[in-house]
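Justification of resources, computational component.

The compute hours requested in this renewal are based largely on the per-chain cost of generating structure records like the one below. Each record pairs the submitted sequence with a full structure-token output. That output is archived, and it is also reused by downstream analysis tasks.
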Amino acid sequence: MNNPKNTITSIREFTYQRELVYNAFVNPEYLAQWWGPNGFTNTIHKFDLKPGGDWTLTMHSPDGQDFYNVSKFEQVVAPELIVYKHLDPVHVFTGSLAFGYSSGKTRVVFTMTFESDEEYNKVKDFIIPANEQNFDRLEKVLSTMPANRELIFSRLLNAPRELVFAVWTKPEHIINWWGPNGFTNTIEYMDASTGGSWKYMMHGPDGRDYPNFIKYTEVVKPEKIRYLHGEDEGEKEQFEGLITLQQEGNNQTRLTMRLLFNNAEELEYVVREFGAADGGNQTLNKLTNYINQLVS
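The structure output for this chain reads:
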């Protein structure tokens, strides 16, 4: 791999779902167990995971030294990307962790870009093997974490969040993009308000019909949509969905969709049998294309 100047890149594949690997970083309880080279422990003082948020910790080396670290998060896209600026002490660099997922494996790309040749040359011989030790420790922590029961998807949309909210809550919009590739829908009724419900039939490309029922538990225009999703009214829900819309930049919206299943086994079943992870991405790709048509 060709690195940009003064950049160290470390890559590792893990046989775990992306959300689980991502949570091993964003949950300070787990992060403290694996961050740093062999023999190091951590005390995390602050971990405010949002753009502009602070991350401070003390790393305790095996020889008894303490190293206080100050970083500031610059970009957070769950569960895909985290970018932070390491400010103090010793070295100043920009770090990023990118989480890719394919064929049941999560690929983590960890880059550190230093601000000067001097800093890069001073630490590279230590950092490169240290990052591999970091990944080894992460692997051990992943093996002890509770099985994942959540899927997370995110998109940056070129539209104000009022429009994105409308496209998600009005039947005349959602019928044009809802569902994975090849699926269409027949909407019986839709009331996307707190306490309201949405009943519809999804028609698969194989000719099968799939009944769906959504109960809206919290709708805050234009910020949040929380719902319970099942097959029919009165039946046990299959998962809880949470859509959040955050305004970013000039007429851009960061959409995050979280699907929380009742247990890890149910999530693993829908991922294996129905391609739920791919289906979620296809659905948001269709949403992106539809919104681009509306604003063009």
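The CA atoms of residues 135 and 241 lie 31 Å apart. The longest helix spans residues 117-142.
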